């Protein structure tokens, strides 16, 4: 067994375009409200501070790793943030692998190891996902920004002896 990863993908919390846009619109609203407040109001400065804090938090979230996905030694390893457990999915127990969409909704919250209705979800950004079904009927939905490469790596590991 080699310790070389076949596929590696890192997904960050603050790099999805829709939440970035929402945060920037909120910051612009704070700056516009600050601009139109009278000089007599002491709380007007608070709007500028809140606008700058929103922008700083957005920049920090752009570098905050949500989880990383690795395909290695006939398994998929998912590492999350500091206090999350490492999830290892054994590819020997997988009976079906397919590429699909993560969700039909426009807005999706980032999740890590979310168990709902017989599925386990991992998602940070993007529209595509890999759907894995194991022998027990449990479905893993792993969101990916490079779904074609991820699917190719999984199928390659499943075929190798």
TrEMBL record:
Q: Where are the transmembrane segments?
A: 20-37, 46-67
Instruction: Recite the UniProt keywords alphabetically.
Output: Membrane, Transmembrane, Transmembrane helix
Q: What is this protein called?
A: PH domain-containing protein
Q: Please name the source species.
A: Mucilaginibacter lutimaris
């Amino acid at each position: 067994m080699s310790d070389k990863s076949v596929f590696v993908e890192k997904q960050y919390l603050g790099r999805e375009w829709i939440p970035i846009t929402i945060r920037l619109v909120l910051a612009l609203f704070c700056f516009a409200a600050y601009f139109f407040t009278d000089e007599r109001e002491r709380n007007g400065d608070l709007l500028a501070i809140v606008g700058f804090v929103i922008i700083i938090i957005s920049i920090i979230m752009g570098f905050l790793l949500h989880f990383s996905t690795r395909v290695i030694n006939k398994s998929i390893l998912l590492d999350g943030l500091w206090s999350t457990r490492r999830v290892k999915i054994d590819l020997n127990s997988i009976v079906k692998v397919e590429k699909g969409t993560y969700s039909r909704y426009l807005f999706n919250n980032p999740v890590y190891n979310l168990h709902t209705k017989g599925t386990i979800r991992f998602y940070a950004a993007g529209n595509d996902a890999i759907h894995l079904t194991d022998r027990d009927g449990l479905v893993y939905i792993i969101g990916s920004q490079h779904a074609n490469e991820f699917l190719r790596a999984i199928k390659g590991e499943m075929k190798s002896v």
